[in-house]
Amino acid sequence: MKHQLIRTDGTSAPLELTMADSLPSRLKGLLGRAGLNPAEGIWISPCNSVHCFFMRFAIDVLYLDDNERIIAIRPNLAPWRMSLCWKAKSVIELAAGECQRLRISPGDQITCAS
């Protein structure tokens, strides 16, 4: 599904995010995948913590509030690691390095592209 990253400076970038909003899709997440393409990821909702057990690649993790605004970023979360943000309502997982490449920062917002 096409989404838009709206940066705090007003610029934007497209994102291709798969929604994981059912129990089976949230449990599976990125397990079994070999990697992600640039600007591709998964949006897990509801969610405030992730693990990379059994994963084959590192990810960048974006924690979002209930307004889809980024409140925390955990870059380069390696396989077999965990991360948590108590205040988060949902999580976006991107390939490691995408936050830096796309200049994603706390305060940026994610919207559906129309």
Account of the 3D structure:
The strands form 2 sheets. The protein has a 7-stranded mixed β-sheet with strand order 6-5-8-3-2-1-9. Strands 4-7 form a two-stranded antiparallel ribbon. β2, α1 (23-28) and β3 (40-44) form a beta-alpha-beta unit. Helix content is 9%, strand content 43%. The chain is mainly beta and 114 residues long. It contains 2 helices and 9 strands. The mean pLDDT is 93.
Strand line-up of the largest beta sheet: 6-5-8-3-2-1-9
Please indicate the percent range of residues in DSSP E strands (runs of 2 or more). 35-45%
Gap from first CA to last CA: 10 Å
What is the molecular shape? Answer: globular
Global Rg: 13 Å
* Average pLDDT number: 93
- Which spans have pLDDT < 50 for at least 5 consecutive residues? none
> Which structural category do the helix and sheet elements fall into?
mainly beta
Compressed to H and E, one letter per element, the order equals EEHEEEEEEHE
Beta strand count:
9
Helix content: under 10%
Strand count, sense and closure of the main sheet?
Answer: 7 strands, mixed
Number of helices: 2
Counting copies of identical and different chains, the oligomeric state is: single chain
Topology at a glance:
Elements: E1 2-6, E2 12-20, H1 23-28, E3 40-44, E4 49-51, E5 59-64, E6 70-77, E7 82-84, E8 90-95, H2 98-101, E9 109-112
Parallel strand pairs: 2-3
Antiparallel strand pairs: 1-2, 1-9, 3-8, 4-7, 5-6, 5-8
Structure at a glance:
The protein has 114 residues and is mainly β.
Key terms for this structure?
about 110 residues; mainly beta; seven-stranded mixed β-sheet; two-stranded antiparallel ribbon; 2 helices; globular
